[in-house]
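Hi R.,

Here's the chain you asked about this morning:
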Amino acid sequence: MKNILEFIENSALKYPDKLAVADEEGGLTYGQMERLSRQIGAWIYEKTDGVRNKPVAVLLDKKPGSVAAYMGVVYSAISMWYWMRRCRRPEPSRYSER
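And here is the predicted structure, written out as tokens:
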């Protein structure tokens, strides 16, 4: 195996119905993950007109679909990506500038 995409593709072929990622609200099988990732990658490719190194910001929650979104960016193979997570606003620090 050369990369994570190859791992997902091989796993989708061998174990299409096996759970790949899950949380308390649901999950994705390897087959679902590969299909969704490829769909997202194709959408990104279309929206960026195939231009290489065009930045793509991805806001991700900790959900199974987020893994597919990340893989979709990798599948698009044209974009630099920025992984952004939702988080709480940091509390003001006593060390912050005034």
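One quick note: The radius of gyration is 17 Å.

Cheers,
M.
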